[in-house]
Design a protein that fits this description.
single chain; 719 residues; alpha/beta; Rossmann fold; two-stranded antiparallel sheet; elongated
Length: 719
């Protein structure tokens, strides 16, 4: 009988779970977030033998005890949604360790099908797994797979569908012994739970009792809401046995439970489940590479080279399609401008909408190439090595080894983006280390800041490359110092130990890279492009209205009339251009944005910023891409993008109110002040609006203080 069913894919991180998900679902995927948390939610569809199957890719997790958001989401989905079967993806090269999660599924009672993944690596190690014997001992279907090539996916679907139909939603919990210290109290707790019907509609009684012994915070909290009296009795039993275990065995119940689980797994693996066909005479490929790539001195040097190569390749390849995108928007701007009569409508469409959205979407090719490079590092296994090597440095500043990738993605080497950088902090398990990373990642040199750096370097410094290098380095220094400050004051807490599995190196599949790249690039387009559209319209309105008074417009028109009647043709063209520029600048200063910039000048002049610079920096609160174009408008040059910034550079260099001191102060401020609006929204989603507001206020205050110091010191030194 044809039917619709749901299969949940679960497994340890780096087990190949998501690769198998991509192999099963292809492009038929939906990505979102689980309600109330920032953990990603992925679903896809497939068909098998007439059955419509929804496949859910659960977050990677090592256990079903809710220590992290990933573990909580994976467990809650299984307990509350009750999929027809759980397909447990295991790394077959580390079978015993991966079976720890399997055993917890069995204790919960959910229908489980095992996929022994990476069997090609097992065979390369000279080993063989007797899947028939393992299936007999576990009482579960076991299938050999190679997710990266799609090997075994058809057999896996067949077994999963057949087993789901056989079990018909029934849960059959496994009961194992936890020894003479825990078994008696466990029996009493189960009896109390069954007698009082305590949470039995949610999960089996024995599983609930085990969660109390493991001091699972979420289950304990739910129990108090369900029946406070029974919950109190269970907590007392758990506390009593915990004191007993610590006083007699010097161990907690959680650790004792883990020991007995691993002991149970060891008994399953005895007598021929894993056979050695041929001895492994030398280190495997991954170990050989790690002897070089993670070596104490050579490893970091190679890592820097790899990171440089990522951005070199990104710009070398991405600049070509980026030019096509920019040419398209230039053509579109000209076409729309020619089709509409001069006036507000034309200005809104050309300057506000096309100019604003086009400036952001022009970076999509670079972003896509960069994401593909990063996806390659993740899927190949090298990303874990980078975190491993950086852990010692990051820990010295209160961060974690896994903080390095959010920094790099945010622009640790110029050209990244803080939006995916902040989202990359989801890999951090400690909430405090994640928060410190989220708040400091925007200090990096994102792609939107690069045009500003290039603009000022060309105007005031001889060696632009050195300016870029020291600016990027300054972003790292600021991020690490601020992280240390935050972790020593308002985000105090012990550093978490760096525990990360180093997966074997593997060659990523083209299909997997394309899927990952598309998902992230599309998320960038949706999150950045739509928000920038609204912001661009708002900035355009602030720089356009209320417009000059009629008497001022009449005055400029009178100047044009006089010029037309008194000057020669050559002189007339130059004079009319001067009048147009003066009127444009006067109108800008009279606009809402101009008035705000002028009001702020009494304070910002401490850092050397005039009213025109203030307007550009106000636009930068919305999107750093806006700074260069707004400066161009403010200096009566019209809209200026990164490629046309040379003219603006010359204008700034010749302006008496500008100089090296002002340029240095502006570089400091732009690098460090409030994240762009899109990043602020993402920070709020990853943490809270309180911390998002903190990032705006603190970063801006910190940036202004340093820019004032930089301006005053540079001016004093240069005389």
């Amino acid at each position: 009988m044809n039917r619709r069913m749901t299969l949940a894919l679960a497994g340890n991180p780096n087990s190949g779970k998501t690769t198998m998900y991509n192999a099963l679902t292809g492009a038929r995927q939906r990505v979102g977030n689980y309600p109330g948390v920032t953990v990603e939610h992925r679903e896809g569809d497939t068909r098998h033998n007439g059955n419509d199957i929804t496949i859910v890719d659960l977050p990677g997790t090592y256990s079903l005890t809710a220590y992290t958001p990933e573990e909580l989401v994976a467990r809650d989905y299984i307990v509350e949604k009750r999929p027809h079967a759980v397909v447990n993806i295991l790394d077959a090269t580390s079978l015993e360790r991966n079976l720890y999660l399997t055993l917890q599924f069995m204790e919960l009672g959910v229908p489980v099908v095992l996929a022994l993944n990476m069997m090609d690596s097992v065979h390369k190690q000279g080993k063989e797994i007797d899947t028939t014997l393992l299936a007999k001992r576990l009482g579960l279907p076991v299938v050999e797979t190679v997710a990266r090539t799609g090997g075994g996916k058809k057999e896996l679907l067949e077994e999963a569908v057949a087993y789901a139909e056989e079990r018909r939603g029934s849960w059959e919990p496994l009961a194992i012994s936890y020894g003479p210290d825990l078994d008696p109290v466990l029996k009493k707790m189960v009896a109390l739970i069954e007698e009082s019907r305590f949470m039995v509609e949610r999960a089996p009684a024995r599983w609930v009792a085990i969660k109390y012994l493991e001091n699972d915070a979420q289950v304990v909290k739910m129990g108090e809401r369900h029946d406070a009296e029974v919950a109190g009795k269970l907590l007392k039993m758990a506390d009593d046995v915990a004191r007993h275990c610590r006083s007699t065995l010097k161990i907690s119940p959680e650790s004792l439970i883990a020991d007995y689980r691993y002991g149970y797994i060891a008994s399953l693996m005895k007598e021929g489940v894993i056979k050695t066909i041929r001895p492994q005479e030398r280190l495997d490929f991954s170990d050989q590479l790690d002897r070089v790539l993670t070596q104490q001195f050579v490893g970091p040097a190679i890592m820097v080279g790899v990171l440089y190569a990522i951005f070199y390749v990104t710009f070398a390849i991405g600049e070509i399609p980026m030019g096509w995108v920019e040419m398209f928007f230039e053509w579109l701007s000209g076409a729309v401008g020619g089709a509409l009569p001069e006036g507000l409508a034309q200005s809104l469409m050309v300057d506000g909408i096309i100019g604003g959205v086009g400036g952001v979407l022009g970076f999509v090719p670079l972003i896509a190439v960069m994401f593909m490079m990063i996806a390659f590092l993740e899927d190949s296994g090298y990303m874990a090595r980078m975190a491993y090597m950086m852990d010692r440095v990051m820990r010295a500043f209160g961060l974690h080894g896994s903080s390095v990738m959010p920094f790099i993605v945010s622009g640790g080497i110029a050209g990244g983006c803080a939006v995916p950088g902040v989202m990359a902090t989801r890999t951090l398990r400690s909430p405090k280390e994640k928060l410190a990373t989220v708040l400091t990642a925007p200090f990096m040199s994102c792609g939107a800041k690069v045009p500003v750096i290039i603009l000022l370097a060309a105007a005031f410094f001889e060696n632009s490359a050195q300016v870029m290098f020291y600016t990027v380095l300054g972003g790292w220094v600021a991020a690490l110092v601020v992280a240390k400050l935050l972790r020593s004051t308002i985000i105090k807490g012990e550093s978490t130990p760096f525990v990360m599995e180093l997966p074997p190196y593997r060659m990523p599949t083209v299909r997997g890279l394309l899927i990952h790249t598309w998902e992230r690039a599309w998320a960038y387009i949706k999150k950045a492009g739509t928000v920038i559209l609204g912001i661009s319209i708002l900035i355009w309105a602030m720089m356009t209205f209320p417009g000059l008074p009629d008497k001022d417009v009449a005055n400029y028109q009178a100047q044009r009339t006089i010029a037309e009647t008194t000057l020669s043709a050559d002189a007339l063209e130059e004079r009319l251009a001067t009048i147009d520029n003066e009127e444009s600048q006067h109108a800008l200063q009279h606009s809402v944005a101009g008035r705000i910039g002028t009001t702020m000048e009494s304070v910002t002049q401490l850092a050397g910023f005039d009213w025109r610079t203030n307007i550009a920096l106000l636009g930068g609160f919305a999107a750093k891409e806006v700074i260069v174009s707004t400066l161009g408008t403010a200096y009566s040059l019209g809209e200026v993008d990164a490629e046309e910034a040379d003219g603006l550079s010359a204008r700034l260099a010749s302006d008496p109110s500008w100089g090296v001191a002002t340029a240095i102060a502006l570089l400091v401020f732009v690098m460090l002040y409030a994240p762009c609006f899109v990043t602020v929204v993402v920070i709020a989603r990853e943490t809270s609006w309180k911390w998002a507001a903190f990032s705006v206020v603190f970063n801006t205050g910190f940036a202004f203080a340093l820019s004032v110091v930089a301006f005053q010191m540079t001016r004093a030194i240069m005389g």
